[in-house]
Amino acid sequence: MTRGPLRALLPELALFFVLLAAPILLPPLGFSHDLLSRALNWALFGLGFDILFGLAGLLSFGQAAFYGAGGFVAAYLLVSGTIQSVWLAFLIGTLAAGLFGIAVGWLAVRRIGIYFAMITLAFGQMAYFIQNSSLSDYTGGENGIAGVPVPVIGFGDGAFRITAGLPMYALLAATFFFGFVLARRIVRSPVGLILKAIKENTPRVAMLGHDVPAYKLAAFTIAALYAGLAGAMLGSFQSYMPPDAFALETSGQLVVQTIVGGVGTLVGPLVGAALWLWLRDNLQLVPGLGPLWKLILGIAFIGLVMGLRRGICGEILHRWERRRDAALLRAAEARTEVIEAATGAVTPEVPAEVALPMPRPAIDGRASHAEIALEAQDLARHYGGLKAVDGVSFRVRRGSIHAVIGPNGAGKSTLFKMLSDEVSPSAGSVLLFGERLTGAGGARAAQLGVAKSNQLNQLFLNLTVRENLRVAALARARGRFRLDLLAPSVGRAEVEDQVETMLAILDLGPRAETRASILAYGEKRRLEIGMALATSPNVLLLDEPLAGMSPSERVATCALIRRIGRSCTILIVEHDLDAVFDLAEQVTVLSDGHLLADGPAEDVRRDPAVRKAYLGTGPEEDGTGESTRIRGAMNEPA
Ligand SMILES: Nc1ncnc2c1ncn2[C@@H]1O[C@H](COP(=O)(O)OP(=O)(O)OP(=O)(O)O)[C@@H](O)[C@H]1O
What we know:
This protein is of the alpha/beta class.
């Protein structure tokens, strides 16, 4: 085994030895075997929550519903004698919680932020109520279910009962260990990378072609499965399934423990739970402090969160990574400063040819002969009384570079959002190669081959340049949704080839491992375009690609667009009219949401209505030279 894979396994090895040593070394410090077992049960529950919250950024206050569901299903099946095998009951309890998770998640993931949290809270409360009322014949209501048997290994005389104490610790430690290994595989899979990107910038993930609700639902279900398994083991471990497994306090404690331990670290829930339970158990033993333990825990929690914003493990990991990567980070920041200081002097290299390894989406049947790549039919978008776009129709020829221009507020960005089906039109429709695109949704439009780069950068700022491009390329390679939880995110050769080619095309090779947030502005603009291009689109929409670039970067980017245009239909919105008339064969002009002109670039340049819209009757200099530049662009070339 080489050094790389061994190093990648270090967290697993470290955890293995910690779990092995804990029952020997920690009891003298007040961590009994029972406390350690309870901490492991919470930690198993927390692993799923950490995938949901730490990885995907979805804060749920209703995880107790799945913990309780897994626990009560398993406990009922065993105590009622429906099944004898405790192992089978664990499995059924886990699956029941997973199914419940799919049902709740299906509704919850369609909402974001506080609305998502409130839906999960409401479901948690509903589950608690149902357990205590309608289902009390099965769940024992407020009494819970007593007499839950423990699991047994082997048969007959050789059977070994896993009783409380060290045997139960061993079982929970082994389960947590395998849960941890699995969670780490999930984090490092394509699904894990996409969930990370969703946490960073959800709309952009959808625009690249990923089915965001499906990935969120996957994370929600995984969290419910972990919760169900932990709940199912709880009854067996305590010989009793308590009704408070369903309580809001259980969900709250999970959130607090995970935050204290460190969100997004996977070991945070274990450290948080161990600390929380240790404080709780030991504070209650201190004379005079017993009744105040909740108050003291609350103060300790506030102190920890204020002092260690990332939680205990999160802070340790952050500081260690910062120290490990300090030299690289300084070098990356220094390079950014050099690029920003030398505005105009640093010119990105433009490749001789732009050929992507990953194929474009196939155009089938009738559509493959279509001459028109994209068509707007009477498109309108109204915001209340404001008609941002009103009855606009035009066609974009296949293989052409077509520009949309117009003064500020003319409706260009809104038009683009309708062309990529990011925004639904109030009226009219968009055809892609003759087939209706409108109504498909942004992710499906991207899968059909429409990609868009935005006026304002929409990058995944905490991911590296390479990871940003990988998220885009994965959408092309894997389709809208795939549950390849155990595959490594770097495992697909065609994706890695696409990413390498993109790094070369964008001249961002030396910045591949740099976080997007550290890049210079011009580099961020190139990456924004590159992410759209990495999906191998049939039609590329570029919304103000030159905005904020230095003159030399503009020249290089125009050359890049021209190269891309040799193999792909391009529609570009741009205020730099010199660049527009230099690049585009066809130009569509918008003014106040209406179509003002549409035709070959030279005809549009000479159109009196267009000249008037841009220059007015008597343009004044505004001190920026903008009027002169526009006048220059509007005049016929020498
Ligand atoms: N979500 C929205 N809600 C309300 N009004 C909006 C919304 N989006 C755009 N508008 C309005 O629609 C009009 C057209 O905006 P849009 O951004 O499409 O113009 P634009 O031509 O792209 O402008 P610019 O060149 O300045 O980017 C503007 O008056 C804008 O304020």
